Amino acid sequence: MNPLPSTLPVTGRTRLRRKPARGVFDRDAVYRILDEAFLCHLAFVDDGQPYCIPTAYARIGDEVYVHGSAASRTARALGGAIELCLTVTLLDGLVLARSGFNHSMNYRSVMVLGRAREVTVGAEKLRALAAITDHIVPGRWDELRPTSEQELKSTAVLALPIVEASAKVRSGPPLDADEASWPVWAGVVPIVTSYATPVPAPEMAADAPPFDTTIFAGRRPRA
Amino acid sequence: MNPLPSTLPVTGRTRLRRKPARGVFDRDAVYRILDEAFLCHLAFVDDGQPYCIPTAYARIGDEVYVHGSAASRTARALGGAIELCLTVTLLDGLVLARSGFNHSMNYRSVMVLGRAREVTVGAEKLRALAAITDHIVPGRWDELRPTSEQELKSTAVLALPIVEASAKVRSGPPLDADEASWPVWAGVVPIVTSYATPVPAPEMAADAPPFDTTIFAGRRPRA
Question: N or C: which terminal CB in chain B sees fewer CB atoms within 10 Å?
Fold first, then answer.
């Protein structure tokens, strides 16, 4: 049973001032979006300057894990438990209306605000790294050469609790039926992402099995 | 002739501490990435908290334009000419190596740092809005019902000069040939984005032409 409330609190920082109907504070709905994507943009402030960097992530329970080089600017900044914003965006389509003003996009995005804690226990670090890998390529982790102590040491893992978060969702046709007499096509152009044929590395063990693309069944590379 | 140097300055804020070989400071290369994508993540700080929001954009010359509701948190925050970070990420593929540590992604990302100026002159605002629309759907702007004064007034347009910026690029196979004897498939799984069949709006003018998908020829919906 989830000890956290199933509805995320609406705070002054997550409340939508614009188009509040697009706001989603249902924890399950937020988690579904987090679980469909695997690339986030992580914003943090260093010396007064915001930075926004793309990075892989995975959710385990009520936390989002990210990783990076222990020597990176991000890890050094975030290791200090500073405020950050982790944003995930799934772009579903272009919304073409009769006016520029009513053009939009269909999307599902999630914003998680808060402070990350640095994961220092090896077992939890490994679990997070496995989760990130398997979140992107299901079942991959167990096939890999095990992680060395040195690799683990040089990798920083951060956990961001999903306490203050919200989703924003737009779907459906353009909302300008009242202007439908304007003689231009209107509607939605869906955007689809997919995996293309895998390209093998130049060197490969003779006994390496071919890449099993069925592991992606039903999944789309939603970054 | 471009009055700005063709090589972007490497500053303490754009210098890559990690994997400096991935850094790209060539202005044309940065512009190519900016011109291929159309969705960025914009990070700014409000009351000590960083926010990172997805938004459409377009480049005109040496500036990136973004727009939003004049009433939004972003516009209010950015209208104050605060520091921001505009990040664009094109995800090209998954890089599968023999170890978790060497897994990576192929991507091209751009980070533009600086302060935006609010565009207040109507003609420049319209030019920016047309650029954003046509950047996403080529040739769309001229077919649309013209923008009203009220719409223009309620839309905030910001221009971010491309002065302090850099790209980061990874491509190619995994870099662990020395571990190729490990019996697992390794290589790159390319990620492809495409447009699906357009879905017409429920209401449409009888004389509205069908959507011309050829306008996207050679383009991919790279958000």
Answer: N
Q: What is the pLDDT of residues B79-111, one digit of tens each?
A: 777 899 999 999 999 999 999 999 999 999 999
Q: A102: exposed, middle or buried (C-beta count within 10 Å: 0-12, 13-18, 19+)?
A: middle
| Mode of pairing for the β-strands spanning B187-195 and B83-96 | antiparallel
Q: Closest Cα of chain A to B43: distance in Å? A: 6
Q: What is the 3-state secondary structure (H, E, C) of A187-199?
A: EEEEEEEEECCCE
**Residue among A174, A189, A178, A179 at smallest CA distance from B146:** A179
pLDDT confidence of residue A142: 97
Burial of B36 (0-12, 13-18, 19+ CB in 10 A): middle
Chain B residue closest in CA terms to A114: B49
Residue A95's nearest CA partner among B68, B199, B139 is: B199
Return the higher-pLDDT residue of A179 and B76.
A179
> Which residues, in sequence order, are CB contacts of B63 under 8 Å at separation 6+?
B159, B160, B161, B162
B15 — pLDDT class (breaks 50, 70, 90): confident
Per-residue model confidence as pLDDT tens digits over A122-140 = 999 999 999 999 999 999 9
Among A6-10, A104-108, B52-56, the least confident range: A6-10
Mutate to test the interface with A, among B91, B137, B144, B192 (most CBs of A within 10 A): B144
The predicted model gives B153-174 an average pLDDT of 96
Residue A156 CA, distance from chain mean position: 18
Nearest residue of A to residue B150, measured between CA atoms = A101
Q: Does the beta-carbon distance from A137 to B94 stay under 8 Å?
A: yes
Nearest Cα neighbor of B152 from B119, B195, B177 is B119
Model-wide pTM > 0.90: yes
What are φ and ψ of residue B186, in 5° steps? -135, 150
| pLDDT confidence of residue A66 | 96
Chain length of chain A: 223
